[in-house]
Amino acid sequence: MIISRALAVNMALAFGGCFASAQSRDLPPNTIDCTAFTKLPNGNWHVGARTSFNFGNTKQILQNQDIRPHFLFIRAFDFYEVLERKCGGQK
To answer: How far apart are CA 36 and CA 67, in angstroms?
Structure first.
């Protein structure tokens, strides 16, 4: 029981550290227009009209879609977290 508890703690620390480092790395250059995205009351983001943007060397086109955590990944970035970081403080 002690060994499995220690293993669980070590795994949690390892995976937590990987997640934290992935979320804290710098975003690549991008042309995301925050005005195209609306924060919904449930915490998700919504894009209505067709919008296109570059994220690093990747071009994306989104339209009429809700974006929730872990729903869309671009270049190994959770796009929900990208919007939180880039647009979360804007009203």
So the answer is: 12
Alpha carbons 67 and 26: distance in angstroms, whole number: 21
Total Cβ atoms within 10 A of residue 86: 14
Find out whether 74 and 58 touch, Cβ atoms under 8 Å.
Answer: yes
Bridge partners (DSSP) listed for residue 58? 55
Instruction: For strands 65-67 and 37-39, give the pairing.
Output: unpaired
**Residue 23 confidence class, pLDDT cut points 50, 70, 90:** low
Quote the strand ranges of 1-91, DSSP E: 37-39, 45-47, 51-55, 58-62, 65-67, 73-74, 77-78
Name the residue ranges covered by the structural domains of the chain.
Answer: 28-87
For residue 68, what are its two tokens? 């929730």
Residue 85: Cβ within 10 Å count:
14
The answer to pTM > 0.85 is no
